[in-house]
Design goal:
Elements (H helix, E strand, L loop, with lengths): L1 H8 L7 H32 L2 H12 L1 H4 L1 H10 L2 H24 L5 H25 L9 H13 L1 H13 L12 H26 L15 H6 L1 H7 L1 H17 L6 H7 L6 H22 L5 H23 L4 H29 L5 H26 L7 E3 L4 E3 L1 H20 L3 H9 L9
Antiparallel strand pairs: 1-2
Length: 447
């Protein structure tokens, strides 16, 4: 009886074969992505010892979410979405395999990490809006929130799976620079990146097993550029889409752009000397995200969804504040779990609203506009935070010297406060206030 309740309420979308296959493909791809971010971030730190360089390489992995989605969104509405996804997974596997080979042959340099990080970011950024556009075609409308929640679980929950998988391999990767380390050091991080390539291959195989064909619609009387950019006016003319995307923009910029400061935070604040400690913090974010999204997948009340959207926004701002004021690693792990839970829940509700009120004919291109907004601000803020985390004048002592705030703490604090303020201001926008009070828009708005 209990199993039936869990299946019908929390896992109902997984009853559909093609969605179940897509879910597993996205889980493997997400695990590869987050394991790769951890591996490349820690490797960059070991090679250069600079938070700015970590921020720059992270920026290069994320900036493709500005450059690539307009084209992949077009492809998602022009061609069979599953085939486009499969091609992107193959490219990701190829890039990560080449990166692993450079490490094994002792030829890795910082510019390699920059170029290949950008390349993998491009293929991943191309895959994401295509997969998002495919989801509503695989399940009934009434299961959309559940399906999107479970899909978001693969994105945010893979922060747990990916770093957890490579945790034993990174345990031996210590400072000084890996280029002067032992052969076992190089082998461990090389195997970690090679494992990412294996995850991408698994995603490719699963994607090919999807039977449903799905495409959008193009106006054949209009040119390529018109069809390519059609999602932009669609989003900005739609009052609900416009404010939802704007809040996601602030959310990702202020409280979700912390990857570049976690290595320096773990080393200088908690005396971590191994990549495993950095990986543990990322795993905690993933664990919190997974718990939040699974719980959210069982919510059916529209008013509850609206209240959660407001409250999770506030918690998203509080999480970085707790991280900044953490005095030991266990407290930081708790803060990381809170950050993961609040941020993943907030973004799940955001994505559900976008998919609910968007017509299927332009899902790929609207998803691309959304991805450009959140990807662009996350890339830019990771670069900025990484650069600022190297500035000593941002050190502070508070509570009469009982707590030292390093620059990374300062950036987390400022970001958290700014987003809480943005949520407060959003209440005075009638469109968002209606969502907070009555819940998500009805699917009838599609008509």
């Amino acid at each position: 009886m209990t199993n039936n309740i869990l299946s019908n309420r929390f896992l109902s979308a997984l009853q559909y074969r093609d969605y179940r296959i897509l879910w597993s493909a996205n889980l493997a791809g997400g695990a590869a992505t987050w394991a790769l971010i951890v591996s490349i971030g820690w490797l960059t730190w070991n090679i250069s010892g600079s938070s700015l360089n970590v921020g720059f390489v992270t920026f290069l992995q994320m900036i493709p979410r500005v450059l690539v989605p307009p084209f992949s969104g077009y492809l998602a509405d022009r061609f069979d979405r599953k085939k486009v996804m499969a091609i992107m997974f193959v490219l990701s596997a190829t890039f990560t395999f080449f990166l692993a080979a450079l490490i094994f042959f002792d030829a890795i340099e910082l510019w390699h990490l920059s170029v290949l990080g950008f390349a993998t970011g491009c293929s991943r950024s191309a895959q994401m809006p295509v997969g998002q556009a495919l989801v509503p075609n695989l399940i009934p409308k009434e299961r959309l929130l559940n399906a999107i929640a479970l899909s978001q679980a693969t994105i945010h929950g893979s922060r747990l799976l990916g770093p957890l998988t490579i945790l034993p391999l990174l345990s031996g990767v210590v400072s000084p620079a890996i280029l002067s380390g032992t052969d076992s050091d190089k082998t461990g991080i090389g195997l970690a990146i090679l494992l990412c390539s294996g995850f991408y291959i698994l995603s490719f195989i699963q994607t090919l097993r999807i039977k449903t064909s799905s495409t959008g619609e193009m106006d054949t009387k209009k040119g390529f550029l018109f069809n390519l950019s059609e999602g932009i006016p669609y989003v900005y003319r739609h009052a609900q889409l416009r404010v939802i995307v704007l809040m996601a923009f602030f959310h990702c910029g202020f409280v979700m752009s912390f990857e570049s400061v976690l290595p320096v935070l773990s080393v200088y604040k908690f005396d971590a000397d191994q990549g495993a400690d950095f990986s543990l913090m990322m795993m905690s974010i993933g664990a919190g995200a997974l718990i939040s999204i699974i719980a959210l997948s069982g919510v059916t009340s529209e008013s509850m969804k609206g209240k959660l959207f407001l409250n999770l926004g506030v918690l998203s701002g509080l999480g970085p504040l707790i991280m900044a004021f953490s005095v030991n690693l266990p407290m930081a792990i708790f803060a990381a779990m809170l950050m993961g839970a609040a941020q993943a829940g907030y973004m799940t509700l955001t994505h559900t609203m976008i998919q609910t009120i968007t017509e299927d004919s332009v899902r790929g291109r609207v998803g691309a506009v959304y991805s450009v907004h959140i990807g662009g601000i996350m890339a830019s803020m990771n670069l900025a935070n990484g650069a600022l985390a190297d500035l000593n004048f941002l050190n502070f002592e508070i509570f009469n010297g009982l707590l030292t705030m390093i620059p990374a703490d300062t950036m987390l604090t400022v970001g958290g406060i700014l987003f809480i303020f943005a949520v407060f201001l959003s209440w005075f926008t009638s469109t968002l206030r209606n969502i907070y009070e009555t819940g998500l828009p009805s699917p009838a708005l599609n008509n």
